[in-house]
Amino acid sequence: MGDNVNLYSTRNAFCTHGYMINRAAARNIKIFQTPVRFEIDAFKFYYWLNACKLYCLDKDLILQLSEDLAPSSVEKMWKSDRKSKKDKAYKELYNQLPLKGKLISQFRRLNKAIYKPFESLDY
Q1: Can you give the pTM of this predicted structure?
Q2: Mean pLDDT computed over 51-61
Q3: Residues 46, 52: contact at Cβ < 8 Å?
Q4: Residue 36: which domain range?
Q5: The pLDDT of residue 1
Q6: Band of the pLDDT at 14, cuts 50, 70, 90?
Q7: Which of 29, 83, 104, 111 is most buried, by CB atoms within 10 Å?
Q8: Is residue 2, in this structure, part of any structural domain at all?
Q9: Number of domains in the chain
């Protein structure tokens, strides 16, 4: 196997152990996460809200050392009813978007739903 690393567009990134973002994405995420609304690596929400584009690699460059990591502060706060709280936070952000942003968001969600059956991590 060679040392090549391939880059793929993705629509459903979450629970990442390491990531790289550019300044524009960092600025947009900071805007959406002030105050903190959901875990910082819930990238699918940022994708839906047109805050950034998502890509993944076909090789692990960063590995998590232990499964026994302490829960995040967001996880502690949202232990009960986490999904509904995240959905509510997303809807609040979505409702603040201009019409063009809402159309982009709906297109990206539809695009994700269409491609989800074909996405895999079989490397």
Answers
A1: 0.66
A2: 83
A3: yes
A4: 7-60+71-118
A5: 47
A6: low
A7: 29
A8: no
A9: 1
